């Protein structure tokens, strides 16, 4: 549980009495410590693990009750026979010490009340959806979404009678109002956003979505929660909970994991929403394993360093690419040309990230010659790792997207997707320079 202000209130669904406890103060005097400081110790007490500086990896499927009464007390909490919920760890499908430390630390970045770890970004998204929707409900979402998320909503949840309506990522308040009002004639279970959209880089106006939701559902007993996939810019460059989102979703595989060596997901939000999602995760077992959680703890220690460096590198590389004669245009949040998008950027983002689109002059053949000539950048999908990656969406990740839809999304044959890593910026520029010369 993210307990960033040293509150001592009871946790309703079970932070373990027996799990390693917090060892780092969250404040020194009036000074609230920053996430990059808290990543080294928060949520772990070495005294509970033989003085080990780093948390051990707890490989166990189950946890021992100190006595029968404690076992009964636990299950009274789980079943609601006793208020206050479960406490203590009991079985590893529900949680474990490494995952709990990870969840404590994940929540810190966005000052979320609580957080959950998952075995993949898609496991996080699927568990969120399953915990919120029932047949006949509507999911209203921004478009485009990550391809697997679109598949999950339309082709899988659609089979169970869930409906969906979408608005374009860059929609205005009026356009959002129109779609939400139409959806509100039925039961809207969830508003689901992704910003920036991939590969268009269009930003969603989260504040406008929140204002629209609050106005349209002003007289409803319940308002559909607003969830957002913050994988591309979070947690360093965008913190949507501050702009009206209530649930934040991550593929931790990307910047948070950051070394292209694991697959994991996360969800952050209020205790109330997180508890709803936790019940579903407990039931279906989409939690990440202890080893992955431990690797993520290591990743989070350098999150700010890595993301800052990648962002700085991207600024330099994009400045170079922009003026290159073989480059047609760029889709990079540092070079927004639309005034409305710039306004959203100024309100919502503190950095342009390190993932962008490069449109070379020519078509697929030119794009392929460029990709095949790269010496440092590796040809691979994914993003947010320490190493620079490049891919061709039209021929790879979006190959199965119908031509008309590709056109609408601006996925052209000369578009190359690049995720900049933490290498030396001038080395990367030299690599892109020689690869452009090969076109
Ligand atoms: C990669 C990604 C996902 C899916 O995450 P996995 O960890 O691969 O399951 C979801 N959303 C976005 C924006 C992503 O980039």
From TrEMBL:
GO molecular function list: carbon-sulfur lyase activity; pyridoxal phosphate binding
InterPro entries given in the database record: Cys/Met-Metab_PyrdxlP-dep_enz, PyrdxlP-dep_Trfase, PyrdxlP-dep_Trfase_major, PyrdxlP-dep_Trfase_small
GO cellular component, one term: cytoplasm
Keywords: Lyase, Pyridoxal phosphate
Region (Disordered): 1-34
One biological process term in Gene Ontology: transsulfuration
N6-(pyridoxal phosphate)lysine PTM positions: 254
Comp. bias regions, Acidic residues: 1-10
Cofactor names: pyridoxal 5'-phosphate
Stretches with biased composition (Basic and acidic residues): 20-33
NCBIfam families: PRK07049.1
Entry similarity comment: Belongs to the trans-sulfuration enzymes family.
Protein name: Methionine-gamma-lyase
Organism: Sphingomonas rubra
Source organism phylogeny: Bacteria, Pseudomonadati, Pseudomonadota, Alphaproteobacteria, Sphingomonadales
